[in-house]
Amino acid sequence: QDVEKTIKGKLPQVKITSEAAKGFSGYGNQIGLCTGQVKEYYHEGFLAKRMEVGAVIGAAKAENVKRLKPAEGDIIILLGGRTGRDGIGGAVGSSKAHNDLSVQKSGSEVQKGNPVEERKLQRLFRNPKAAQMIKKCNDFGAGGVSVAIGELADSLDIYLDKVPKKYEGLDGTELSISESQERMAVLIDKKHKQEFMEIASEENIEATIVADVTGSGRLKMYWRDKEIVNLSREFLDTNGAYREIDIYMDEPQKVSYFDTNEGNDDIANSLFELLGNINSACDKGLVEQFDGTIGASNILFPYGGKYQLTPVDGMASKLPVYDTNTATVMTHGYNPYLTEQSLFHGGAYSIILALSKMTAMGADYKKARLSMQEYFEKLLSDSAKWAKPFAALLGAFEAQNNMHTPAIGGKDSMSGTFNELNVPPNIICFAVCVCDADNIISPEIKNTDSKILMLHLKKDENYLIDYDYAKKMFDKVHELSKDKKILSAKTVSMEKPVISLIKMGFGNKIGMNITADRKTLFTNCDGDIILEVKDSGIIEELKTSGLLFSEIARTCKEEAVLIENKSLSYKNLIDIWTGKLDKVFPIKAKYEDIKIPQIYYETKSYKKCNIKTAKPVVFIPTFPGTNCEYDTAKAFENAGAKPEVFVFKNLTTSDINYSVEKMAEHIKKANIVALPGGFSAGDEPDGSGKFIVSVFKNELIKNEVHSLLDKRDGLMLGICNGFQALIKLGLLPYGRITDITPTSPTLTFNTIGRHISKISMVRVRSNMSVWLKNADMNTTYNNVLSHGEGRFVADEETLKILEKNNQLALQYVDHNGISVNDSEYNPNGSAWAIEGITSPDGRILGKMGHTERTGKYLYKNIPGEFDLKLFASAVEYFK
Question: Residues with catalytic annotation?
Answer without folding.
Answer: 720, 850, 852
